[in-house]
Amino acid sequence: MNTEAKYHAQECHRLFGLGRMRTRLLIRAVVVCFFASIFVIGIRAEDGHEGWLRYVPLDPSAAKIYATVPRVVVVEGDSPVLRSAQQELSRGIRGMLGVALATQSRNADSSAASHAPAIVLAVDRNLAPESLRIRWSNAGSKKSLRITGGDDRGVLYGVFALLNKIARLESLANIDDTQKPSAPVRWVNDWDNLDGTIERGYGGRSIFFDADNVRPDLSRVNDYARLLASIGINGCAINNVNANPRVLTPEFLPQLIRVADIFRAWGVRLAIAVDVSSPMRIGGLYTFDPLDPSVAKWWRDRFDEVYAKIPDLGGVVVKADSEGRLGPSTYHRSPADAANVIAKALKPHGGLVFYRAFVYNHHLDWRDPKNDRAKAAYDNFHPLDGQFDDNVIIQIKHGPIDFQAREPVSPLFSGLEKTNEAIELQITQEYTGQQHHVVFLAPMWKEVLDFDMHAAPDSAANTPVKDLVAGKVFHRPVGGYVGIANVGLDANWLAHPLAMANLYAFARLAWNPDSTPEQIATEWTQLTFGDDPTVVQTITGLQLASWRTYENYTGPLGTQTLTDITGSHYGPNIESSEENGWGQWHRADEKGIGMDRTVATGTGFVGQYRPPVAKIYESLATTPDQLLLFFHHVPYTYELHSRKTVIQHIYDSHYEGAAEVAEFVDQWKSLQGHVDAQRFNDVLARLEYQAGHAIVWRDAICNYFLKKSGIPDDKGRAGHFPNRIEAESMQLQGYEPVDVTPWENASAGKAVACKQTQGCTASYKFTGAEGNYALVILYFDQKNGESKFRVMLSGKEINRWTADAQLPATKIGADAATRRTIPNLHLRPGDQIRIEGIPDADEPAALDYIEITPQN
Ligand code: GCW
């Protein structure tokens, strides 16, 4: 029984144990017992809306350790943020301890405040900005719990820190906790378009915008800001970096003010992404040349007006000369020219310009072996070091390409000494399963942040990325962390109930990059699912394994994700990255695979690192296996440090990865009854889907490299599917075989599709021995239709479903491929398995294969 269940059950027992009751008490007893009953059978629905701020009632016996927590809150001072702090404290204490705190303001009623023990919220300017301290203090004979902040935000963060401890049953008896954020910039960016869609967003439509305006109802924005504040995030750019210039028009300003007002109460500074051609596109100028005085004046005037209404605007984010966006190169000006003209307009108001280093040519000539997209950020920004104004921050993606399953750290982090920098991490899972797959990214981020760039003049000193971005190495005034969040209107923000762990982890690492992924995952799980040790261990273990598992069944050894680069960025599509200008090449051919990026024989990218790092990557002998193919082109027979050949590693890792996800499903099933039914079923369905999709990935990659290399799998698995029956070989009525491109994205390169509105059937007569079997059906679930399927066993329906998942697929292929398993079927020779598919709209109820696997 979980804590809530216990609480309600005990309360129910207590109330009915009171003998004859007054009516009010009787009603209370009935209500409490009703809740007790639904909790006990585990059906209290949790939609994930509260994230990690659930404040559920603590087990009364456990809550006893908080008996000495004062029942009065005293706030010294007044501001929107302090008011939020006080209200949040009351909300949390009421939720968890069932106690209504009395509120006193020190200014208004100092005598009362000094008499009772209190939780005191106060600013102490001796503390660093945004830092917090929680400790007991003895004022006279009274013990008060003081939550002090270096400023209002620090107080708010202190309140959240206290509530976090209470939710996780940490003792407060001797609390003396001082925390200071690692870096001043801890921001999120949301790539929301003004029309309400979100670029690379997988949790529903925008919470900010709809139909080219800010949404009338901003209650979700308030909830989001509260979640952000609770983990120390202090800025949020709310619109897509592929920015619509309208966001800066005078008529849009009143709408931004509405968002800023909500953010302000939570200490989150509003920011916007701006288009550098705005002076021309919305300002009526004939140019946007950053060195043209009329352009400089336009930016100044515009921001004077914005700051008059939003004095705490955090600043702007700029994406220019990238992926088709206009930029200073139009006038042969540099990114520094473009950044500085805006920075000068923001400077008097304390605003920051985040200029993204994601500037590259996506029309690179792939035939030239010296070309390399990985070099772009450093090539563009390193020569400009020292030319950026002090309120400019270069926002650098963690790797040199683009959020792949694994990349080395961007060499630009050590390529700027006289320029502020921030690391950009992607919370939204663009290349890591789009929240259909569970992939907890903290272990990857942690590796990046801890990576020693050897950037100090004395190269013996440790200069990890976390110190560079915090400005500690080169004594920069400002810098830090930016996470691409892309939350949406889905009740639980990011669609997958386990995905919010990534937002939590991003912020925890930004606050304290020395915390470990284990600590973060444990904390998040306790707060989100409760403190049942089975639940905490299982979910934490699963989260911590998930990134390497995903890497295993997608693109291992630094090949990048091997996904559909020119399309969805979701399922496998190995050749999509080749022979085009996007530059995400892995150069696989018949003999070998990998990009030679060495100085000696390759693109020279390795030379962008400081010598001690370059030395590691330049040599095959010292490059770690997991990045081998990012830096070197080798034959498939090349032997890794693990003693495996590259090709055998490809086979093994994919089979292991798929098997690991199957284990996730079993692990999750063990939590039935320990987790509320709504989230239990949601996660189970997603993990089962993921386990199937991992097999789709496994087969596509293994079949492709088997054919390409001609080298068999030592273990005989790749290319052999003994229990599989191709749909095109079944007895078909109405269904027609179709070729699938690329061929490896369907078993045997073919599927069957139905074009008859009345439906089609595919039948198979079972010829194996009598026994128990699991039947798998691989069907294609596109988003442009909702086909219906039925499975009949010797004339009797045994299963039916509708293919209505929201996968990013509009055609037959690996993005749509979904495995459905019907377990425990008793089959006899001669039994007929018949699948009926009824197409819908543009989705042809397509099938790839069935598998009949013996089961004990
Ligand atoms: O990863 C790519 C995405 C684009 C994105 C771009 C960027 C906002 O595929 O959708 O555009 O990165 O970071 O600018």
Provide structural commentary.
The longest helix has about 35 residues, at about 675-710. The strands form 7 sheets. The protein has an 8-stranded parallel β-barrel with strand order 7-10-11-12-13-14-15-16. It has a 6-stranded mixed beta sheet with strand order 2-1-3-5-4-6. The protein is an alpha/beta fold. It is built from 21 helices and 29 strands. It starts with a helix and ends with a strand. Residues about 1-20 and about 30-45 have low confidence and may be disordered. It is globular, with a radius of gyration of 29 Å. The structure holds 4-O-methyl-beta-D-glucopyranuronic acid (GCW). 4-O-methyl-beta-D-glucopyranuronic acid binds next to loops.
Key descriptive features of the protein:
eight-stranded parallel barrel, disordered N terminus, 856 residues, binds 4-O-methyl-beta-D-glucopyranuronic acid, 29 strands, six-stranded mixed beta sheet, alpha/beta
Short structural description:
The protein is an alpha/beta fold and 856 residues long.
The fraction of residues in strands falls at 15-25%
Major sheet characteristics: 8 strands, parallel, barrel
Which small-molecule ligands are present, each listed once?
Answer: 4-O-methyl-beta-D-glucopyranuronic acid
Average pLDDT score: 94
**Annotation, overall tally of beta strands:** 29
Number of helices: 21
Cα distance, first to last residue?
32 Å
What spatial order of strands do you see in the largest sheet?
Answer: 7-10-11-12-13-14-15-16
Structural class by helix and strand composition: alpha/beta
Low-confidence residue ranges: 1-21, 32-43
